[in-house]
Amino acid sequence: MKKRLLENIVHGVFLILGLITVGCVLLITVYLVVSGIPAIREIGLTDFLFGREWEPTGDDPKYGILPFILTSVYGTAGAMVIGVPVGFFTAVFLSKAAGGKLRTAVGSAVDLLAGIPSVIYGLVGMLVLVPAIREIFDVPDGASLLAAIIVLAVMILPNIIKVSITALDAVPKEYEDASLALGATPTETFFRVSVPAAKSGIAAAVALGVGRAIGEAMAVIMVAGNVANMPSLFESVRFLTTAVASEMAYSSPGSLHREALFSIALVLFLFIMLINAALNFFLKRRKGE
């Protein structure tokens, strides 16, 4: 009787915590929609999403966020192109091939990367990476989309590596033993048995990496130049996140400028939701096959 009562209490606690989590997501969603829709209505959806000029404080204010959208897409895609392969192969190596001491040492380094504040990444990028890009590529200013991509690629590595390792470690050892018994090499076993069995966890790691890359603000402000240009690899750019972070402090409460910043946050939120939905759809489709 006592055991059943304890189980019911624990179940109730978990249910309440789950409902609180869902409630927080719904609250954020409703708040962004309510705060962001008025500006989109006043500016016009087409002018807001596809306008190329952002001058909220000019004599003739313009609120086009296409440069921010494209910069966020290109920056996130570039970071994933660099970070995902590095993180994935590192995770496979640490989970399946590395010895105990090496795994502990590299794992500690990964944990350290995860614990470094964003501002430190931005500071190192500003003092080391930006001057290096300026010298190597002979450009006027190294604060650029390329610098942001490299910094973001480094920042997403801990998420991808740690979650992928957890997924790979959860693969039953019997799968690998059976593959080896059939004559497959260890490398073939890792990539044709272990990785496919852990694909859901690896996809979750990639989704976390995308969320970290597209949602980062502080480090990107410090290395990207924070100028509302159309995206170019060696020019200063501004991301969706940095637009909100850099202008929210001086936008007047109740002004169209402030409402437009909330609209940018709404667009960013919808981007992340679409990415997660696409990954979930892809995984369910693969499971159905």
- What is the H/E order? HHEEHHHHHHHHHH
Oligomer: single chain
Number of domains: 2
By CATH, the architecture of the largest domain is named Orthogonal Bundle
User: In percent, how much strand structure appears in the residues?
Assistant: under 5%
The largest beta-sheet arranges its strands as: 1-2
Protein described:
It is a single chain. This protein is mostly helical and 289 residues long. It folds into 2 domains: 2-50; 66-288, Orthogonal Bundle (MetI-like fold), CATH 1.10.3720. It is 79% helix and 1% strand. It has a two-stranded antiparallel ribbon. A hairpin with a 6-residue loop joins strand 1 and strand 2. Helix 3 packs parallel to helix 6 (145-169), helix 7 (173-181) runs antiparallel to helix 8 and helix 11 (240-247) runs antiparallel to helix 12. It is globular and about 75 Å long.
